[in-house]
Amino acid sequence: MQSIFQNIAMNKNIVKAVIKEKQQEISLLNLVYRPFSYEDNACYVNVGIRRAGKSYLLYQDIQEKISAGQIGIEDCLFVNFEDERFADIKADELNLLIECYQELFGPKKPWIYLDEIQNVEGWEKFVRRLADSKYRVMVTGSNAKMLSNQVATTLGGRFIVREVLPFSWREYLSYHGVFPDQNWEFDLETRLQVRRLFDDYFYFGGFAETFNLIGKREWLNSLYQKILMGDIITRNSIRNERQLRLLTRKVADNVMQATAISRFGNIIKSIGENISTPTIKDYLQYLEESYLIFSFPNYASPVSEQETLRKRYFMDNGLLNLFMFEGEAKLLENLVALHLRRNYWNPDEPMMFYYKHGNVDLDFYIPEAKMAVQASYSIQKDETRTREVNTLVDFNKVFKLNKAVIVTYDEEETIEKDGMTIEVIPIWKWLLR
User: Fold this and answer.
1) Mean per-residue pLDDT for 324-344?
2) End-to-end CA distance of the chain
3) C-alpha distances in angstroms, 117 versus 86, 113, 310, 427?
4) Strand partners, 99
5) Could you say which of 5, 52, 69, 80 is the most buried, measured as most Cβ atoms within 10 Å of its Cβ?
6) Residue-wise pLDDT tens digits, 402-412
């Protein structure tokens, strides 16, 4: 497809039509509020998995500014770079967007929204120039390369990075008209509503487009294929699709377990595929860059091991569940990992860890909060209960904790042992903390 800018005289009209079309679309949208806010005088980069709501939050920002009387819809320049009309646009052509806007609305500075900008190679220099020129700019992207040191250096601290995940459990409840207040646990009707809605969220995750669908699994599978084929295989010119698919399945199989890169290689070789360790490392990196999975290291490991031996989880329970059959324990731990990432993510350094050393095998440790969390579907069996409690007690002897929690599916109690208090709490309640 030819770039729409290769015949400027003829195609400026197309660009202007796209600008007006998007303004009309945004002004007519009915949105469900998400708890994200953006300062008027700051520029932002929204990053995250496809369909998590990055574009939605741009729409929300525009509508909030219009409602507050700060801007009109004609003050906004919104471009979606997944629009096929912009398929071949080059970085040195981007300034024509500003020219077209100003030919429509006069020589003023619009509020600029650039959606899925990672599709334009070299985009960061254009965006940096806009910020330097005092434009208010919001960009989104579905690839973690947007957070690379090279891009960060070019942007030069002009942008605030926000990670956008699929809906949290609280947002899911709000979407369904349930708003737990401070004492919601003591309101029988609210408690019943919360518990009734949880199973759907647990198995199918937080992508808002699935909430009113009967065929949730089909939608999730379509999204998975789009990420795998478009964001990973095509973008990285992967020739052996089968190996990548096998690796992704093995990552799902090994949720809950710390797995070394070399072990993934051995597993795949055992089923007849010849794959090198560097290729495994690259594929895992691609899976993380696409936000399909995320990982974190062992707090007890030396720095040299922290990149190779990690625990890996999926960015949404619905995507993980595509690979599961009776995988409730994995889904529970995955959801715990997501909640902790949502609250403690930092693009510059790890904020969450697991801890495995000697006899201590701890699922999650947050040093900043001095909090340790074990994920266990049930602790009714004596063996499981003893293992989970002793792990926390032993860990507390080395790293004094402010908070020790065992997250279960439906069990609740308080355990006192060796001078420490351990809270056992159902996940559907803990996620609202």
Assistant:
1) 96
2) 50
3) 11, 10, 30, 36
4) none
5) 52
6) 999 999 999 99
Whose tokens are 């409840």? That residue is 173
Residue (of 223, 206, 204) closest to 214 by Cα position? 204
Residue whose pair of structure tokens reads 């055992």 in the numeric block: 270
Looking up tokens 């429509």 gives 104
155 has a pLDDT exceeding 90 = no
**Phi, psi of 107, deg, nearest 5:** -80, 60
- Which helix (H) or strand (E) segment is 12 a member of? helix 8-28
Q: What is the pLDDT of residue 145?
A: 84
How many other C-beta atoms lie within 10 A of the C-beta of residue 10?
9
Among 36, 45, 293, 34, residue whose Cα is nearest residue 167: 34
Give the DSSP letter of residue 123. H
Dig out the tokens for 93 from the structure. Answer: 């052509």
Which two structure tokens, joined as six digits, stand for 120? Answer: 């334009």
Give dist(CA 295, CA 254) in Å, integer.
Answer: 12
CA distance 411 to 308: 35
Mean pLDDT throughout 23-36?
Answer: 93
Q: What are phi and psi of 282, to 5 degrees?
A: -65, -45
Residue 10: pLDDT band with limits 50, 70, 90 = very low
- Strand extents, DSSP E, 282-419: 293-297, 309-314, 353-357, 360-366, 371-375, 403-408, 413-417
Residue 193: left (phi > 0), alpha (psi -120 to 50), or beta?
alpha
Separation CA 12–CA 331 (nearest Å)? 50
| Helix runs in 276-347, H state only | 277-289, 317-321, 328-344
Helix ranges (H only) for 205-276 are 216-226, 241-253, 261-269
Contact call for residues 283 and 294 (beta carbons, < 8 A): no
The 10s digit of each residue's pLDDT in 71-121 is 999 999 999 999 998 888 899 999 999 999 999 999 999 999 999 999 999
Query: Rounded distance, CA 180 to CA 178, Å?
Result: 6
The answer to whether residue 49 scores a pLDDT higher than 90 is yes
Tally: H helices and E strands in the chain: 15, 14
pTM above 0.90, yes or no: yes
> What pLDDT is recorded for position 4?
52
